[in-house]
Design a protein that fits this description.
Keywords: Activator, DNA-binding, Transcription, Transcription regulation. By secondary structure, the protein is an alpha/beta fold. Helix content is 43%, strand content 22%. It folds into three domains: 84 residues, Arc Repressor Mutant, subunit A; 101 residues, Periplasmic binding protein-like II (D-Maltodextrin-Binding Protein, domain 2); 92 residues, Periplasmic binding protein-like II (D-Maltodextrin-Binding Protein, domain 2, 3-Layer(aba) Sandwich), CATH 3.40.190. The protein contains eleven helices and twelve strands. The strands form three sheets. It has a five-stranded mixed beta sheet with strand order 4-3-5-12-6, with helices on both faces. Strands 9-8-10-7-11 form a five-stranded mixed beta sheet.
Length: 300
């Protein structure tokens, strides 16, 4: 079977119709160039060039073959470039899982950042709670998670990309919304409370019980999705502690309010990946996020 080197030799001779000039361009002497053409013609099974002491011409078969030869060489060069781009994390596919809360805040800006920085890649997105994200990372069905880990873990590469506050969601006519005095954490006591699930939304649950005195009998419902929590608040089932980005969920009759005695931006959203990852795009993405963070105080 003929080689790419043989095709390149033939195409160069076909362009110049002169062995000397073709050999010079290929940085070789004429004898090995002639041998490459002879091997190619033997593999093809027909003469491709007519040559004598005065001139070189393409045979009808050669004129047909040179078109396909150029296509093959271009395809081979494109394959090489695509492989290099893939290895550099500039081309390919990345699968990203996000939580419902991160979908309200950081997902859109992060996807825009990725497409601006690495426009040639394809992105698939999936909604999952954090525990499902970690399982998907372990099973390698996703490459990156936008979620929250309470503790560092050597098995994961983690970068904080967004901070926001935990706020109260309550009906607009609720006493805690109507009071003139500042809202404090202790004011939540005694009211029916809708909180995050301790199993499916462990991060938010831990923040809640660490910063609020939550009586077991006070909990009306525990859920994993902020949208459902706001819906229950709108239906009069209680008040809820939700991330500030819940303001993007529109439910008539629900208002959000900040606590005066709670740390601001207590919720940290992270981008999480297995360490190390087999996908070069993951490595490139973390590099870009780190570079962006070092140049400004920007978070997504």
């Amino acid at each position: 079977m003929y080689t790419l080197d043989q095709l390149q030799c033939f195409v160069t001779v076909a362009e110049h119709l002169h062995f000397g000039r073709a050999a010079e361009e290929l940085n070789m002497t004429q004898p090995p160039l002639s041998r490459q053409i002879q091997k190619l013609e033997k593999d093809v099974g027909t003469p491709l060039l007519l040559r004598n002491n005065r001139k070189v011409e393409l045979t009808p078969a050669g004129a047909t073959f040179v078109l396909q030869a150029r296509t093959i060489l271009n395809s081979a060069e494109n394959a090489r470039k695509l492989a290099q781009l893939s290895a550099a994390g500039l081309r390919g596919q990345i699968r990203i899982a996000y939580t419902a809360a991160s979908g309200l805040s950081v997902l859109g800006p992060l996807l825009r950042f990725i497409k601006n920085k690495i426009p040639a890649i394809q992105i698939e997105v999936f909604e999952m709670v954090t525990q499902e994200q970690l399982e998907a990372l372990e099973n390698e069905t996703i490459d990156v998670a936008i979620g929250r880990l309470a503790d560092s873990d050597d098995d994961y590469r983690i970068e904080e990309i967004h901070h926001e506050s935990l706020v109260l969601a309550a009906p607009v006519d609720h006493p805690l919304m109507l009071q003139d005095k500042p809202l404090l954490r202790e004011h939540v006591g005694g009211h029916p409370l809708i909180i995050y699930s301790p199993t499916k939304a462990r991060y938010f649950y831990d923040i809640t019980v660490r910063n609020f005195q939550v009586n077991h009998h006070q909990v009306a419902y525990s859920l994993s999705q902020v949208g459902a929590m706001i819906a229950l608040v709108a239906s009069g089932h209680g008040i809820a502690l939700v991330p500030e980005s819940a303001q993007h969920i529109s439910f008539p009759g629900v208002r959000l309010r900040h606590f005066e005695d709670l740390e601001k931006e207590i919720i940290k959203t992270q981008i999480i990946a297995k360490h190390p990852s087999d996908n070069p795009i993951v490595h490139r993405l973390f590099e870009l996020i780190s570079e962006d963070a070092s140049q400004s105080d920007h978070t997504f």
